């Protein structure tokens, strides 16, 4: 199997949470299942969240598995680490519940992987009434996140940092795991949760 997609899901309230995350979880899952590149599995990790488990009952696709873990602290790596532990795919890709993939997201990543152990890429945000490409700089805090990477499972990467910058710290750890990485052409990761605008 080529890919494991990991979606951590907590649908309770916290400061800065996006609205209607129950609906957005469904949209996120469907965007994975609608991929034109079909060699993948999906792990939805319910972060102590019964509502996530209830919502996931509507998806009977054998590629989908929902697993509940004890509630982790906010911005903790436990949900994504559980997804890695369960993964069978050669590569791990991530999706946040308030974002979604275009149908060619995985296909475009495959086209860029080559001999890389991990890759990073730009994403797309909705701004001024249109989709705008946002630059990812893997070395700068605040300019890279979970949406911007895909990595080999065999690297043994773990989400160890607790806090809002956990994604940046994880990406920095990938640099220490392998120098066989590169930036690839922008696939189709659409970021809907824009800081300061929680209704999108």
Strand tally is 11
Give the C-alpha Rg.
Answer: 16 Å
Low-confidence stretches: none
**Amino-to-carboxy terminus distance:** 34 Å
| Overall helicity | 10-25%
Main beta sheet strand tally, sense and closure:
7 strands, mixed
Q: What structural class do helix, strand and pairing data support? A: alpha/beta
Series of secondary-structure elements, N-terminal to C-terminal:
EHEHEHEEHEEEEHEE
Mean pLDDT, as a whole number?
92
Strand order of the largest sheet: 3-2-1-4-9-6-10
Number of helices: 5
Kindly describe this structure.
With 200 residues, the protein is of the alpha/beta class. The chain has five helices and eleven strands; from the N terminus they run βαβαβαββαββββαββ. The mean pLDDT is 92.
